[in-house]
Description:
Blueprint: E1 3-6, E2 11-14, E3 22-27, H1 38-56, E4 60-65, H2 72-81, H3 85-102, H4 118-130, E5 134-137, E6 140-143, H5 159-165, E7 180-185, E8 200-202, H6 204-216, E9 220-226, H7 230-245, E10 250-256, E11 259-261, E12 264-265, H8 276-280, H9 285-292, E13 301-302, H10 305-324, H11 336-354, H12 359-379, H13 386-399, H14 407-422, H15 426-441, H16 445-457, E14 460-465, E15 468-473
Parallel strand pairs: 3-4, 3-9, 9-10, 11-13
Antiparallel strand pairs: 1-2, 5-6, 6-7, 7-8, 11-12, 14-15
Helix pairs in contact: 2-3, 4-6, 6-7, 9-10, 10-12, 10-14, 11-12, 11-13, 12-13, 15-16
Amino acid sequence: MLELYNTAARRKQKFTPLKDGQVGLYACGVTVYDDCHIGHARSTVVFDAVVRYLEWLGFKVTFVRNFTDVDDKIINRANQEGIAAQEIAGRYIASFNEDMSALGLRRPDFEPRATEHIQDIIAAVAGLIEKGKAYQVDGDVYFSVPDFPAYGRLSRRKLDELRAGARVEVGEAKRNPLDFALWKGSKPGEPAWESPWGPGRPGWHIECSVMSAKYLGQPFDIHGGGEDLIFPHHENEKAQAEALAEKPFVQYWLHNAFVRIDQEKMSKSLGNFLTIKEILKRYHPEALRLFLLSAHYRTPLDYTEAAMVEADEGLGRLYEALARAGGAPAGDAAGGELGDLAGQVRADFRAAMDNDFNTAMALGHLFGLARGINRALDEKNNPSGLAEARQTLVELGRVLGLLARRPEAYASERRKLLLDREGLSQEEIQALVDERVQARRAKNFARADAIRDELAGRGVIIFDSPEGTTWKLKG
């Protein structure tokens, strides 16, 4: 039985979709004004795994993830570069798609952009004004928070406390400091669309309320995003949508925790971020996926170089087991110790994922299966159940977006990354290995040991045998 931690309820709840066998899921996407960092990657990888698991359970999932392609940050970047805001948005949508493709993410069923839904947004704003939940002032339109008594329930914030900390920005004419913009009147140098209130553009929050309901209906099953979106973004989404439709907005709210560096949230505003592109120059994409899934999605994840190396080597162990099991014949007898292990791992994997998508525990079961395959192959040439165990490892790995490559293709990709990371080439390594062989023949053991230590420090392991000297990359 699948249970989800529902932010609105502050507890785990049994998952029961609104329509039998179908799930509607909306995840808040990025504001496209720069390259994505691995904090963004955590959210996208987490919800990719959620979608994959729901599909593995047999659900038909409709997955929607938006792009915010009109926003102050986009406009500021465009003005700095002297180009149109939509050119900036287009550039970084392409960059986002490149990153997500490299990470092996599936494309959502719908990827709506705010600027493609202006008329839908205008209609929603007009509807809120008509219902007395919003008001217009000098070309701006604000949602009236006091007219929505349920405001604050998602984030568990009290209106009195919110009022104490609320501020009215220069140029705003709100009735109440808590009121928020649905529509912003245009300013010089900004993109604008015609509306009943004059030229302007949407506020941030309204786009997600409108686009999620358009593609999934209202209510829908799951709304997800980073925990920083709980307030005000998701609180405001909920208020707008429920005030307009006069019915519930979402059944289950899921929020992932941050990626941190030095115990601080990774963010562009703090300047402590690493882009996905930077990481993928040094580590295999599936290693980054494994790292991002190595902790429960609601637990903060600390990025360190050691943690990435551990994830990289862990992925190598999974592929090694896959490669070793690759010789299992198609007609391999089922059952046996390995077949029994595969069945147990399948059950344990499902139990972990049913427990609020506990990917960390699920990964532990995959590593247990890999160890079982290696142990069986060390003891016997062709243990029974090997093909079943290999198939199970691949199937469950792919639920998490792992083991999507043939082992030899993975090995080639990883070798190149490791060599690039250490600033080495295969020719340079072989030259040092050959030099070491000559040093040993000349009984210059000090030089031979120095070469071995130098290579070991750069991730190259040397093996001496009666047949000669060979080398491989660590992990």
